[in-house]
Amino acid sequence: MNNIPKIETASLIAELRQISALVKSSGEEDIQEDSASELQVLFNRLDELAALEVNEKSIDTILKSPDFDFLVDSISRFRFLYNLKLENEKAKSLLESSDPWETLRNFTFYSNYLQLARTEYTCSGLKPKDCVLFLGSGPLPLSLIMLCCEYNLFGIGIEQDGKRADLSRKLIACLGLSESVKIIEGNHFSLPLETRCDLYMIAAQAEPKKEVFEHLAKILSEGTKVSYRLYEKGLRRILDGNSLFKLPSGFEEYHRVQPEPPVNNTVVFLKKR
């Protein structure tokens, strides 16, 4: 990890402004069609910056930048859309593979998701045959796949984009998991479902966070368990707007698991009051 001294903070802010200006108008279609890989270079550079170990004085200076909110909004949006591109590509590669499970196990972040699944299962006190619901499951619902395969759970994924939900269903069928994982097109307002869920998992990119949790606080019964993920390490914690999210009343935190390599996410466990 690199520690950025105070003198370099201005250069870092300048680079973030430059990247923000380059990506602010990029939509999902532009990113999906990035055949020249120009946007990939910016995405990779942001990953490098996110991994930097930044001192608190630098963090405070960046947070107080007059255009900080705009920078974070445009950069986090771009990273979200580019990650969707990568997930779409991976999902399609699994569908085209003669051995989708082997292809999945060779995925770069496979071990990350295994470790996250172990954390979710253990800290939530889940048992085989329990049901987990994942809000914002995306085209490649690895968290649900890992939990259901490793721990014999039933999973429900909720994805608001119809195309991503359809791709996800095809992938689940390709992996032979249609009996274990169900994908629903919808959002947080699709809840509650008739199915009883033992854990509600909120994706890091499920938005708007405040609205999501306020709705959950209204519809979940007392004692219901909820988990969500955030970034607390390095510059990543401020490049991801979700890390600045403040939990509304109605929930109490009962456990927090700090990341250990190769995982970058902190996992926070809550109970409905």
TrEMBL record:
Any GO BP annotation: nicotianamine biosynthetic process
SUPFAM superfamilies: S-adenosyl-L-methionine-dependent methyltransferases (SSF53335)
GO MF term set: nicotianamine synthase activity
Keywords assigned: S-adenosyl-L-methionine, Transferase
InterPro entries linked to this entry: Nicotian_synth, SAM-dependent_MTases_sf
Lineage top rank: taxon: Archaea
Protein name: Methyltransferase
